[in-house]
Amino acid sequence: MSAVPAEAPNHPPTRSASVVETLRSAVLGGEFRPGQRLHEIRLTERLSVSRTPIRAALQALASEGLLDYAPNRGYTVRAFPVTEVVNAYEVRAVLEGLAARLVAEQGLGEKARQQLERALHEGDALVSEASFGEEHRSSYGAINAAFHETIHAEAGSRLLADIIRLCQQVPISSPRNVVAFEQRDVRRRHDDHHRIFEAIVAGEPWRAEMLMRDHVGSVKTSLVRSLSECASDTGGESGPL
Known about the structure:
By secondary structure, the protein is mainly alpha-helical. The chain is built from nine helices and two strands. It has helices spanning about 15-30, 40-45, 50-65, 80-105, 110-125, 135-155, 160-165, 185-200, 205-235; strands spanning about 65-70, 75. Helix 5 (about 110-125) packs antiparallel against helix 8 (about 185-200) and helix 8 (about 185-200) runs antiparallel to helix 9 (about 205-235). The longest helix is centred in the last third of the chain and has 30 residues, at about 205-235. Mean pLDDT is about 80; it is low at about 1-15 and about 230-240.
């Protein structure tokens, strides 16, 4: 990856933070293709902001490893090898299993319980829809992220949450990215959420851990299968994402 421009623009921090978060969510959610160039002007129109916070956000995401920068070309979405995606999921499975176990051991706080119940309720309504298109995937991506992130936060370990977040910097390994899932896949993952929640509420740490590890591992298996099928269809190899 080429070096990122060293000089950061001056901008209001609150506006910058909002733009960074919006673009980060879009990249992690799969709204931009790997290798796609991110044009400043189009982004300013999309987010209704000036070019200054856009430039700062692009530089921030490049420093996080989500974007590549090249002189005279600008910023493009970084492509990740399949092996890196697999590794991210394998680490996520272990760490998120640990988070679920810690929550089950410590007990679920009332606020976190309400957040998980809301995610389960909203997910139930979504997977019961007769049709399931891009809008539904986007909505479920947010629900999925809320479920997982609530457990990460409730585990009470900032280090654990930070390392999980680092794994999720590989875009396709983000819980917000469910673009490859059909409705049956989402329903299966959502059923997993119910079982994980039940184990946590019942105070069954090891069951909660194993259910979460299996849950994240099964997502990895589905994505690898999907990538392999795409490679077969195009007659190529499942290279960078």
